Amino acid sequence: MALELASGHLLDPAASLVLASAAHHARTSADLSDDAHAIAESDLTAALVAALDADDLALAAESPEGPETLEELEAACRRVQLTRRFHNDAVRACRQLRRQRMVRLFRLAGHTPWPESWEMDDSMPEGLPV
Fold first, then answer.
1. Is 63 part of any domain?
2. What is the C-alpha separation between 102 and 118, in angstroms, rounded?
3. Number of structural domains, the chain?
4. Is 48:34 a contact under the CB 8 Å cutoff?
5. What is the residue range of 80's domain?
6. 124 domain residue, yes or no
7. What was the pLDDT predicted at 60?
8. Which parts of the chain register pLDDT below 50?
9. φ and ψ at 127, to 5 degrees?
10. Which of 13, 22, 9, 38 is nearest to 125 (CA)?
């Protein structure tokens, strides 16, 4: 979604370049470690927040494809927030279960590694349609 926004003519060229670079880095970081991927995703969020100020959003909303693109971006941001919350809730529940006495006593968790929470900046750019 961010690449589509950057490649459209909704933003100024400098903001489009920064956003496209961050989106490309986030997309290609999937093969890297979890920490590097989380940093790349957080950098993309920061680029979105920096590139989309209130004036840019108002100009983008006036263009023919602008409202639909901004609604899709808002939906994508909401999905990222929900996904991170659900994942971290599941990690918390799994850790809580693995700490129970019976699970430890009978080694029901086996040798699997402890699940890791996913921390990243998932703030939404201000002014997106809600």
1. yes
2. 27
3. 1
4. no
5. 2-105
6. no
7. 79
8. none
9. 95, -5
10. 22
